């Protein structure tokens, strides 16, 4: 089997290409890829435990820790001890973080629309179905 025929290789290359392209949207806001993943995840949730953010973003503990520290320094997130487990930390977007998320989201929607403009709705739905069936979740 040739490398270009390997599913994992093709998906990894596509992921890299899309990530690099998407970075042009969030980078002007001073966000790195891990920071954007955290902001995007929190933008769709009220508050989350940091360990759950790691699972949702597919980032490791070190990347999450660094991203959260940087986002806290930028005043984009707030951290508070969990009421259930004082060792755990709940993280939420600050007002500033919510504002940035709300600014970036329409730009990401435009970016996505441009990326899939030559794909029919049926093709896109099939693509999503195939990706979901290949996912570990």
From TrEMBL:
One of its GO terms (molecular function) is DNA-binding transcription factor activity. Keywords: DNA-binding, Transcription, Transcription regulation. Residues 4-136 form the HTH marR-type domain. The keyword Transcription regulation applies. It comes from the Bacteria. The keyword Transcription applies. PANTHER family: TRANSCRIPTIONAL REGULATOR, MARR, TRANSCRIPTIONAL REPRESSOR OF EMRAB OPERON. This is MarR family transcriptional regulator.
């Amino acid at each position: 089997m040739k490398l270009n025929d390997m599913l994992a290789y093709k998906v990894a290359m596509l992921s890299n290409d899309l990530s690099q392209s998407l970075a042009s949207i969030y980078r002007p806001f001073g966000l790195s890829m891990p920071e954007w993943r955290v902001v995007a995840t929190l933008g769709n949730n009220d508050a989350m435990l940091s360990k759950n953010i790691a699972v949702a973003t597919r980032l490791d503990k070190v990347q999450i820790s660094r991203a959260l520290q940087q986002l806290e320094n930028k005043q984009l997130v707030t951290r508070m001890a969990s009421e259930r487990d004082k060792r755990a930390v709940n993280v939420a977007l600050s007002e500033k973080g919510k504002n940035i998320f709300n600014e970036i989201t329409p730009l990401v929607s435009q970016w996505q629309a441009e990326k899939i403009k030559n794909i029919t709705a049926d093709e896109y739905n099939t693509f999503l179905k195939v990706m979901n069936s290949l996912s570990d979740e």
